[in-house]
Amino acid sequence: MILYLGRRLLGVLGVLLAIAAVTFTIFYVLPSDPAAAACGKACSDERLEAIRAHMGLDAPLWRQFADFVTGIFTGRTMGTGQYALRCDFPCLGYSYENSENVWDLLVDRLPVSASLAVGAAVLWLALGLTAGVTAALRKDTLTDRVLMVGAVAAASLPVYFTAVLLIYGLIRLTGLLPYPQYVSLTSDPLGWASNLILPWVALAVLYAAMYARQSRSSMIESMAEPYIRTARAKGLPRRTVVVKHGLRAGMTPVLTLFGMDLGGLLAGAVITESLFGLPGVGRLFYGALTSGDQPVILGVTLLAATFIVVANLAVDLLYAVVDPRVRY
Amino acid sequence: MTAPPATAATAPAHGGGAWRLVRAELRRRVSLQVAAAVIVLFALMAAAAPLISSLGGWGPEEFDKSAVDPYLGGLPLGPLGGVSAEHWLGVEPVTGRDLFARVVHGAQVSLLIAFAATAIVVLAGTTAGIAAGYFGGRTDTVLSRLMDLTMSFPSLIFMIAMMSVARDVNRILLMVLVIGLFGWPGVARVVRGQTLSLKHREYVDAARVGGAGPWRILARDILPGVAGPVIAYTTLLVPGMIATEAALSYLGVGVRPPTPSWGQMIAESVAYYDTDPMYFLVPSFCLFLTVLAFTLLGDALRDVLDPRGSRS
Fold first, then answer.
1. Between chain A's N and C termini, which has fewer beta carbons within 10 Å?
2. What is the DSSP string of A162-190?
3. A78 has which bridge partners?
4. CB B210 within 8 A of CB B24
5. Would you list the DSSP string of A276-296?
6. Keyword Membrane, does the record have it (chain B) (predicted)?
């Protein structure tokens, strides 16, 4: 187990390095020149060179990348002489746009995206699993048909369509809810939830539908296993059979899906955040794209990749807990 | 993530019989007929976009200032967003461009990208999956690592970023490549699992003993066996591709205006959702219908062609 964990952690590190390298190459090799942008129109060649040197853009690409990676682990000093700037661990550089520390920017925005993702995840798991398991246990009945037709339809709705419907119905038309404005969980838990409920629902509809479909099919599969018949034959109550024997084994594919989805959403749901005007990581990313703010783009990409890779690892470890047949 | 071990033997779907089953299923279920009809309709619409929009008499980029009210912020004149004999589905606010022509041309762009990206994904995924499953050993290790790596990429974020940095290139081609780049591991995993379960079947061993080379075995024995799940998976991939294209265009990094695509039309119309709902509903409904139809058809195909399901 320890050995397995160690090997996996090394793998995680390798994957993150590879992703950083790819991102770095794509966004730093491309035509846009941040030094020229920072320098403005009336720019002498000398001044441009100076800015390049200050930004570290004059060094060869591998050197820039090495500096970047070292910066993440140990912090680094950016620029030279009187402009030298100490960037502490974990250093992701400074935004070209407003010279803010990228790490601070991310930390600042993360609670919003995390609130959105986790809240929506709770909602879609509850909805999706209930619907999926119910449909599986009542396979080929009317309940099953209705639930699954609903799931297919809901899975076909793009999130911006659901969001606009919700905004129109619950905010503009009836005024039941306020237009979402993020308040932090710690300062006002009730306000936090009531402001986020619409974005949660908008995001959860799509995922709940996918989870209902997935959990139905894996539940049907696991309920057909011989050990379920054994459990029934032993005279265990139906509830125990379904929950402890069927559901546990049937959850592994759902768990895989969940790790990927939650990991991907933690670092920002770009469309949902921009529709509801939530100042999360997704919005930060979108803003950085429009202004060509490469350090921020790189930072968000790395953060997102970290979440995905770590979530996948967590899921793999959880397999052993959920499904007794899995051992490491 | 370690790839799950191949599940117990899956019965390969065999050519003729499987298609008979598909046809029988299609005859039996009305919902599938409707889904197939919707797909054919939209595909025809996309293929013959210029012809069809010329029936309406307007091009997708033609302005019609007489159809909008300059004193009301350019809202369309007339009921339902300007529906009239002239403009069958109404017009866009401000520009007065014909919605019917734009939605038809939008179908062309959206479906072209979705189909082309799907083709790339399926081709690359099947090749990689068969190679990994059949040759095993180092080939398998390298390819499986590559799949894991690709799947660890935050794909939407990466797609958005790549689309936004590349400036002077063919947007449609770029979008196809970018979407394809992140889609292949899904197919590859399904095919790899299927190949693993097939490669030591008696009939494959028999071919090997009979002196068939690896290429012959791959083409004659393995490929037909993986075709069923791949076809089902492909049909279920298309709606995802359509949605991805729409999402990218929605975010403004997809096709460039004035070229219409559904996602881009929806993005432009969101601001008008309560003043001109028709403008918002027309492209949204097309997107919804197409995605729904492909999902329904894909589900049915999977039930028939891939009975035990290769959903990983």
1. N
2. HHHHHIIIIIIIS--SPPP----TTT-HH
3. A85
4. no
5. HT--SHHHHHHHHHHHT-HHH
6. yes
Per-residue b or e along A129-148, where b marks 16 or more CB atoms closer than 10 Å to that residue's CB: bebbbbbbbeeeeeebeebb
CB-CB under 8 Å, A153 with B250? no
- Asked if B312 is an interface residue toward chain A (Cβ–Cβ < 8 A), one would say yes
- At A124 the pLDDT is 95
Contact A152 B292 (CB under 8 A): yes
Contact criterion met (CB < 8 Å) for B149 and A18: yes
DSSP B91: B
CA A107 to chain B, closest CA, distance in angstroms equals 18
CA dihedral B53, B57, B63, B67 (to 10 degrees): -120
For residue B283, say if its preceding peptide bond is cis, omega within 30 degrees of 0: no
Q: Are strands B75-76 and A85-87 parallel, antiparallel or unpaired?
A: unpaired
Which domains occur in chain A, in start order? 2-87 (no CATH), 105-322 (1.10.3720.10)
Task: Judge whether residue A1 has pLDDT over 90.
Answer: no
How confident is the model over B6-65, as pLDDT tens digits? 444 444 444 567 778 888 888 888 888 999 999 999 999 889 888 888 887 777 877 877
Closest chain A residue to B296, measured at CA: A152
Which among A267, A286, A305 has CB closest to B152? A305
Q: Name chain B contacts of A299, Cβ cutoff 8 Å.
A: none
Predicted TM-score (pTM) of the model is 0.85
pLDDT in tens, A57-75: 777 778 888 888 887 887 7
d(CA B266, CA B249): 9
Burial (CB count <10 Å: 0-12, 13-18, 19+), residue A191 = middle
From the list A168, A274, A301, the residue facing B274 with the nearest CB is A168
Burial class (CB in 10 A: 0-12, 13-18, 19+), A173: exposed
- Is A156 close to B160, i.e. CB distance below 8 A? no
* Residues on chain A touching B149 (C-beta within 8 angstroms): 15, 18-19
Dihedral (CA of B301, A131, A215, B248) sign: positive
Q: Which residues of A touch B266 (CB under 8 A)?
A: 158, 160-161
Residue A166: CB atoms within 10 Å: 19
CB contacts of A217 in chain B (<8 Å) are 309, 311
Residue A189's nearest CA partner among A125, A124, A284, A119 is A119
Interface contact B141, partner A, CB < 8 A: no
User: When comparing pLDDT for B67 and A150, which is higher?
Assistant: A150
